[in-house]
Amino acid sequence: MTEYRAPLADMRFVLNELAGLDAVAQLPGFDEVSPDLVDAILEQAGKLGAEVLAPLNRSGDIEGCQLENGVVRTPKGFPEAYAQFIEGGWNGIPFDPDYGGQGLPWLVTTAVYEIWHAANMAFALCPTLTQAAVELLSVHGSDGLKAVFMEKLVSGVWAGTMNLTEPQAGSDLSKIRTQAVRDGEGYLISGHKIFITHGEHDFTENIVHMVLARTPGGADGIKGLSLFVVPKFLVKDDGSPGPRNDLRCVSLEHKMGINASPTCVMSFGDGGGA
Ligand SMILES: Cc1cc2nc3c(=O)[nH]c(=O)nc-3n(C[C@H](O)[C@H](O)[C@H](O)COP(=O)(O)OP(=O)(O)OC[C@H]3O[C@@H](n4cnc5c(N)ncnc54)[C@H](O)[C@@H]3O)c2cc1C
Q1: CB within 8 A of 37, min separation 6: which ones?
Q2: What's the count of helices (H) and strands (E) in the chain, helices before strands?
Q3: Which residue intervals of the chain bear CATH 2.40.110.20?
Q4: Nearest Cα residue to 201 out of 92, 109, 68, 46
Q5: Which residue's CA lies nearest to atom 34 of ligand 1?
Q6: Given a cut of 80, is residue 241 above it in pLDDT?
């Protein structure tokens, strides 16, 4: 098996000589970003990649994920590696310190993510999806949604997904049929999604799904679509996971490769609406 070692000298060269880390560090909010700090971050990320993530790459690919009674088990060592990953604060490196993030530039985050994906892409997909959910909520979320979800997603204690694709709607999302029907202050979601990366797994106590759905009576095509935040466990007033929401993984996709990353078929609303 090839041993993974992060190409730190190349990364430093690209960051400092080509990508202009010094200019990025001049931007507001990045006062503490220095070549020494970035060196230390890359070194530690390289260690985690080489010592924890890469050794699970081959075994994870052979073992794959298992679905039993709606529960997805990732390969041996993956949940423990994830616990170590979030314990080290790696999930929150580019995000707002107000939500527990480390406020580092995306330039540095991109270099660090290159390490995760090179060491073990199947593992890295989970935080990559969470990262996207955090960005989405940061830019478009209401204050109420941010208050409930941001800290947990930034720390990685909860993971995020994107639920766009349906059997008849891949590149062309105007064909989406998943329905969102108004119910008091919220919506009830029902429909099927396919190819959902880390749609179900055993890394986190809750999974926050970003679901593209259609409200009845809305415009045809993409103009009639809205995006809904649909947690696996509804969130109690104290912020902890409450009752199970009406959604589940009904199967794992086959022949997709990336065996250690659960690519899920998801069903929403079998019991009346998620
Ligand atoms: C490993 C994996 C993980 C995924 N994870 C997620 C996820 O987390 N969430 C999610 O929502 N989806 C996910 N997807 C689904 C992915 O977003 C879709 O596969 C993608 O949108 C393409 O849709 P499709 O597979 O139906 O292909 P199609 O849309 O049927 O496309 C098939 C081919 O036709 C081409 N094509 C399509 N339309 C046109 C056009 N108008 N003109 C010219 N060429 C065209 C495409 O480029 C492609 O080559 C995942 C897919 C994979 C493989």
Answers
A1: none
A2: 7, 11
A3: 158-268
A4: 68
A5: 171
A6: yes
Q: How far apart are CA 79 and CA 86, in angstroms?
A: 11
**Residue in 146, 107, 124 with CA at minimum distance from that of residue 60:** 124
Domain with CATH 1.10.540.10 in the chain: 8-140
**Reduced to 3 states, what is the DSSP secondary structure of residue 53?**
helix
Local confidence band at 254 (pLDDT 50, 70, 90 cut-offs) = confident
The protein residue with its alpha carbon nearest to ligand 1, atom 44, reads 171
What residues flank ligand 1, with Cβ below 6 Å? 161-165, 170-171, 195-197, 256, 258, 263
Helix, strand or coil for residue 137? helix
- The per-residue pLDDT for range 130-161, each reduced to its tens digit, is 999 999 999 999 999 999 999 999 999 999 99
Residues 6 or more apart in contact with residue 152 via CB below 8 angstroms: 158, 206, 208, 239
Beta bridge partners of residue 266, listed in sequence order: 193, 249
Is the domain 8-140 a CATH 1.10.10.10 member?
A: no
Short-list 88, 121, 86, 92, CA closest to 108: 92
Q: What is the DSSP string of 78-131?
A: HHHHHHHHHHTTGGGTTS-GGGT-----HHHHHHHHHHHHHHHHHHHHHHHHHH
pLDDT tier, 255 (very low <50, low <70, confident <90, very high otherwise): confident
Query: Which of 192, 195, 198, 209 is the pocket-test mutation for ligand 1 (most atoms within 8 Å of CB)?
Result: 195
In this structure, the chain runs to a length of: 274
**Could you give the 3-state DSSP secondary structure of residue 235?**
strand
User: For 158-268, CATH number?
Assistant: 2.40.110.20
Look at the pTM and tell me if it is higher than 0.90.
yes
Looking at residue 87, its pLDDT comes to: 98
